[in-house]
Predict the 3D structure of the following.
Amino acid sequence: MKCVVCGLRDAVVMQRHTGRALCRECFIDDVVSRVKREIEKFSMFSGSDRLMIAASGGKDSYVLLDIILKLHDPSKIGVVTIIEGIEGYNRLEDIEKVRKLANASGVDVVVLSLKDYVGYSLTELVNLGFNKNVKVSPCTFCGVLRRKAINEVARDLGFTRVLTAHNLDDEVQTIIMNLLRGDLFRLVQILPNGPILSKLFVRKVKPLRKVYEEEVAIYAHLIGYEFQTTDCPYLRYFPSLRAKIREYLYKIEKEKPGVLLDLIERMDAVLTKYLSQYLNYPELPRCTKCGEPTAYGRNLCMACELLNMVGINSPSYRRSNYVKIYSILS
Ligand code: SF4
Ligand code: ZN
Ligand code: ZN
């Protein structure tokens, strides 16, 4: 079957939400131009911005880097990756893939391990938590500390945006979770032009927010990304509500292709109406231990609070311990 767009090359992808059969080139062009439109629609960044891509090393961050390299001046792009230090889970090979792609365009990759940042690897923190019977999932430790470290490193290095590789499926799961909680404030924050609540936050944007996870995987495959076979051993602790929502959304998208895209478009339109009332929220208070932003009405930020829970009462964050890498494996 020939591609329905160019009519020249053989189709290799059935794009389910549009029902179109596309060749490799037309599929890649389609994804890149949709991402570009989304960036422009929400003014996610401009030509003068310095973009820090927060990369896990998985397919999503690899695809994000590939697309951003096509849309922005590489001299204004950086990549940061946080090594969690999870026993039995080696992400170095994945990061090496991102590193190769980045360095080939002259983009620097900076790496910071949690061990160097807070003095403990994720596995060590999780074990401290188990010993103290702390009922917090490893993913909460991981997510909170990674977000904090990425924001601080990006800010220190003068980046003006942090780009994360969340895809459409991730975003719709977040929308449903916040709808179930009735949390309009958090819902509004899914908008790429949502409120920035502290001068210490580098604005975070998600250019892949309208690209299905399946499309990201196909794109990754088409540009030669080799998939890793081992998963993080803590994946089973992923909040079960999100896992259930993911499963449900997967089913309804299968029955009615395009439904997730439709949902996020409608939510964007509704939330945009409410946006103005959240734009003038006061600056967030600062954590009394580390000085970084914390939620209204709290003394400690989440990171300090989590570390306190496992017995680390005077945490020190050594964010300048990052290293610039040119190769991990060689
Ligand atoms: Fe971190 Fe959880 Fe992802 Fe593992 S599954 S890398 S612990 S967020
Ligand atoms: Zn084509
Ligand atoms: Zn703190």
User: Anything to note?
Assistant: The mean pLDDT is 93. The two ends are 43 Å apart (CA to CA). Strands lie at 13-15, 20-22, 51-54, 77-83, 108-113, 161-163, 203-205, 323-325.
